[in-house]
Amino acid sequence: GQQVMQIPQYQHVQEGEDFTTYCNSSTTLSNIQWYKQRPGGHPVFLIQLVKSGEVKKQKRLTFQFGEAKKNSSLHITATQTTDVGTYFCAGSLGGGSNYKLTFGKGTLLTVNP
Amino acid sequence: EAGVTQSPTHLIKTRGQQVTLRCSPISGHTSVYWYQQALGLGLQFLLWYDEGEERNRGNFPPRFSGRQFPNYSSELNVNALELEDSALYLCASSQERGPYEQYFGPGTRLTVT
């Protein structure tokens, strides 16, 4: 079945350093979503990427979808303590009755102030 | 606008018992998804309901079941509880079926002893 791998599992940075998490799928995806889960909280939607090679930015966050639509990345510039949490990517193969999101195991980001 | 709500917040059950978890989606959302988040395993897709019908299910045994009511709220039932069912159960809703952002509830923490 479809698998979504995410690396690294953990990342500890000093405040102000950059951070990147990578997501790889065993199959070509129709779209990919990114979520953030704060400690003790629930996942919150960040963004969805649909097009091959797509790049989207949200302030200090940059999201990319690979040309082959099998990988994606999230890059945070100049991390802040508010960025702490687990970042999940989630891919789907498409719509219709077989639609489902397959989540990666997430990258836990901790930031040292 | 009220978010996704889930009840109960916490639950402690004994092996072999049965449990029912409840979820109310955001008003106007017709799709409800259930996920299991066990420690170290990320979010595992359980079930998807849309317009009262089960549209897809993840790789879980039949003792995990549920339903969606005419008001789009949903129940997740787990029979014959096992220790490994201990997890956070998250419900999410989206406005339509397909690749739309999912809004998660706070979850129900189930502990099986």
Task: Pick out its properties.
heterodimer; A: 113 residues; mainly beta; 6-stranded mixed beta sheet; 5-stranded antiparallel beta sheet; B: 113 residues; 7-stranded mixed beta sheet; 4-stranded antiparallel beta sheet; 11 strands
Class by SSE composition of chain B: mainly beta
Number of strands of chain A: 11
Low-pLDDT windows of residues of chain A: none
Order of secondary-structure elements of chain A: EEEEEEEEEEE
Oligomer: heterodimer
- Spell the H/E element sequence of chain B: EEEEEEEEEEE
Q: Are there runs of chain B of 5+ residues with pLDDT below 50, and where? A: none
Instruction: Specify the overall morphology of chain A.
Output: globular
Can you offer a commentary on this structure?
The complex is a heterodimer of chains A (113) and B (113). By secondary structure, chain A is an all-beta fold. Chain A is built from no helices and eleven strands. In chain A, strands 2, 4, 5, 9, 10 and 11 form a six-stranded mixed beta sheet that branches. Chain A has a five-stranded antiparallel beta sheet with strand order 1-3-8-7-6, with no helix packed on it. Chain A is globular and about 45 Å long. In chain B, the strands form two sheets. In chain B, strands 2, 4, 5, 6, 9, 10 and 11 form a seven-stranded mixed beta sheet that branches. Chain B is mainly beta. Chain B has strands at residues 5-7, 10-13, 19-24, 31-37, 43-50, 53-57, 64-68, 74-78, 87-94, 103-104, 108-112. Helices cover 0% and strands 51% of the residues of chain B. At the A-B interface, strand 4, strand 5, strand 9 and strand 10 of A face strand 5 and strand 10 of B.
Topology of this protein?
The complex is a heterodimer of chains A (113) and B (113).
Chain A: E1 4-7, E2 10-14, E3 19-25, E4 31-37, E5 44-49, E6 55-58, E7 61-65, E8 71-76, E9 85-92, E10 102-103, E11 107-112
Parallel strand pairs in A: 2-11
Antiparallel strand pairs in A: 1-3, 3-8, 4-5, 4-9, 6-7, 7-8, 9-10, 9-11
Chain B: E1 5-7, E2 10-13, E3 19-24, E4 31-37, E5 43-50, E6 53-57, E7 64-68, E8 74-78, E9 87-94, E10 103-104, E11 108-112
Parallel strand pairs in B: 2-11
Antiparallel strand pairs in B: 1-3, 3-8, 4-5, 4-9, 5-6, 7-8, 9-10, 9-11
